[in-house]
């Protein structure tokens, strides 16, 4: 179903052109699974971008096929103001997303950390291969390359800190340790993407 719903959608930061977007979803779901989360969280990871990419009408589809718990997780992963083709301004969406992390459960953190880690890993590979040209596909509403990179750095740095703060609060569980390890890898990846 994820393959059908994201058919024709391609990765932006991929080194190899025209890689199906499904590759991102499968890698994220795989990381979620290796963290030891139950099947509902793994399924939500496969559909975590569906509302953002295909619009709010997909809510009913998720609910019908996978239930309220999966839908709630997907909704929690959905960036405010980013449903479907007509998205709000990038900075406002990211600010709202960062603010919401302070209310996220361990299960939601267990999806959004692998999501950002997979994207950051891919972006790092592309930057190593083609340099600053790798940033052109991202944040298209900003044309100034230094500003584009600065905004990406701001978001990723703030994301890592917001998740650290929330992980401190959520109850201890084996999955929490696994998410903390992925977050540490994300922090290291961000440091290499945006050297001081």
TrEMBL record:
Q: Which InterPro entries match?
A: HD/PDEase_dom (IPR003607), MESH1 (IPR052194)
Q: Which domain of life is it from?
A: Bacteria
Per the record, the coiled-coil ranges are none
GO MF term list:
guanosine-3',5'-bis(diphosphate) 3'-diphosphatase activity
Pfam families assigned: HD_4 (PF13328)
Domain HD/PDEase per the UniProt entry, residue ranges:
17-129
**Gene3D superfamilies, per database record:** Hypothetical protein af1432
Q: Could you identify this protein by its name? A: HD/PDEase domain-containing protein
Q: Which organism is it from?
A: Reticulibacter mediterranei
